[in-house]
Amino acid sequence: MTPADEILDIVDENDEVVGQAPRGEATSRGLRHRCVFIEARDAAGRLFVHRRTPSKLVFPSHHDMFVGGVVGAGESYDEAALREAEEELGVSGLPRPVPLFKFLYEGPGHSWWSYVYEVRCELPVAPQAEEVAWHTFLTDAELRERIDEWEWVPDGLDAYHRLREFRAGGGAGVTG
Question: Which of 25, 66, 122, 176 has its CA 20 to 30 A from that of 11?
Fold first, then answer.
């Protein structure tokens, strides 16, 4: 099965399941589905940053400061967060990612409910070659320096700014 064939739950504006569709169809038709974003930090507190492969269905060759992806049909956000983090980082035995907040991402032709998580990855990473073309760990200051220099996935950039606001506000509430 290719990534385009993966079955996703299609959801409404309230994140209620209203149907299912293959990922490729959901992407091409702009059907709202679910995604997870996991901020992964190493033992030194640096953030995992990577450039997506050119073969990605959405935002190919863009940089991202999150690992993550779509939530499969019938899968919970928490299950998807652990699965995606381990897959993209190329590790097993990660602690369960900590859920922080959920928001509705809406961009040109794209819409998905997004749950943001954080996880500490003290294991050596071996990123999935099909997903990650290049990676490094950056301090928060180094990342801020590159925000205007690199081409970022727009949903990840939105999640990054929301996460900064979330932390500045004491981490209260789910945003919509």
Answer: 66
- Six-digit token string for 39: 């901020």
> Is the separation of the CB atoms in 32 and 12 below 8 Å?
yes
Whole-number percent of the chain with pLDDT over 70: 97
Say if residues 80 and 66 touch (Cβ distance below 8 Å).
no
User: Torsion-angle region of residue 78: left (phi > 0), alpha (psi -120 to 50) or beta?
Assistant: alpha
Contact 67, 126 (CB under 8 A): no
Q: What is the rounded CA–CA span in Å between residue 175 and residue 37?
A: 15
* SS3 assignment, position 8: strand
Give 153-171 pLDDT, tens digit per residue: 999 999 999 999 999 987 7
Predicted confidence at residue 15, as pLDDT, reads 97
Q: Which residue has the tokens 């097993």?
A: 92
